[in-house]
Amino acid sequence: MSIFKRIFTVIVLLLGYGIVPLAEEYGYEEDNPPSVTSDYIYLIDIDNGQVLWSMRGEDSMYPASLTKIMTAVLAIESLSDLEERIRITEDMWAGLVEENASVAGFYPGDEPTVRDLLYGVLLPSGADAVNALAVRISGSVSAFVDAMNRKAEELGMTSTHFTNPTGLHNDSHVSSPNDLAVLMEYALQSGQFREILASRTYTSSPIASAPDGLVLNSTSWPLINDGPDTFSIPGYLGGKTGFTNPAGRCLASHAEFGGMHLVLISGHSWDYGHIMDATTVYNWFNDNYERQTYLSEGTVLKNVAVIDSSRNAAFDAVVPETRTMDLPKDAVIEVVTDVPDELTAPIQEGDDIGSLQVTANGKLIYETRLSAPESFRYSRLMHAYNAAAAFHASHRFLFWVLCILAVFVLFVLAARIRIHIRRAKRRRRRKRKASRR
Length: 437
Fold this sequence. Notes:
Elements: H1 3-16, E1 23-25, E2 40-45, E3 50-55, H2 68-78, H3 90-93, H4 114-122, H5 127-138, H6 141-155, H7 177-187, H8 191-197, E4 201-203, E5 215-217, E6 236-244, E7 248-257, E8 260-269, H9 273-288, E9 289-295, E10 300-307, E11 314-318, E12 323-328, E13 333-338, E14 342-344, E15 352-360, E16 363-371, H10 380-394, H11 396-436
Parallel strand pairs: 10-14
Antiparallel strand pairs: 1-16, 2-3, 2-8, 4-5, 6-7, 7-8, 9-12, 10-11, 13-15, 15-16
């Protein structure tokens, strides 16, 4: 290897020293998703954050009673005693009939528990239960709305602005499918929220207007997985519906199948369109998608020789981490590495040595840089040996001629050295004889 090539190699290795391997995973988006009636669709796997389908997902929409998910979140976080009783007042009922709001059936004078009210919010979508919780938590509905907007800002719901806790229409009361998915994902972290959403029906504790308890029914479950005349959705775990004339039919729901935990937000459909769309979307993805492990940590990608290192060492370039993704069941996974067959010492642990890319059905889904797993020192002896071996491989005849010439030269040198030694010995003997005389 020439001195210039060696200097260039060292410079490249030094530049690579200390580079932090970068990895990026790309979403896989289906080219031909199913047909739906809703104007807004947002589907995300909340276990890995992968957005599977977004149709106007960032656009502004009216959330209608999906707003009540935020009401429930704040109530669960603010009121730890679920058995606390809250008295329903006339003020809590004021205006609900005139605004044609849906109610759970708690009347002034009733004293339901916090648990009862939470079920009343999420199952029948009761505005009466919403107002009771809002007043209990913040002292007034308007103060509670301020708390809702603060929480939305905290969660990063940048397209959301609440004007009321019930979802009744107001031109300024807006959100987006993406924001509502963020809210739904956050709410599902609560075991209490998940339990309520999974319930088909609930009977409250005894109250004045219902001594045997008030029966509260879900607005979505009676239509789903409840016999041959209902919609069949695989792995359905519950949902919250919403409706106003401007918002149309809306649904925030979640389901688990194929190793995926999906949240679906749909908006602005009609009649049973929100339930039909959930059925269509969940079934389509159940039939076609699953969570797949496309890279396994430690899998050997290539054995790389390290030239000019002690004993001409080598190392395995391996997959740095296990990666999974929701992918089509028939996806063709291709792993492409750009790593040389050999590198030249010195090499430092962490030096950049190449790249790794993964495609699914021809679409890039992941790429990362690869790094050296350990350090390798430069050896002058191995460099000389490798240079000789390389010369022999490319100029075999000349190599042997030079070897013979080298042997001849060594022979001549050895002969001359022997002659020189004999002459030196004779001179020493003559000097000794002369000194005796």
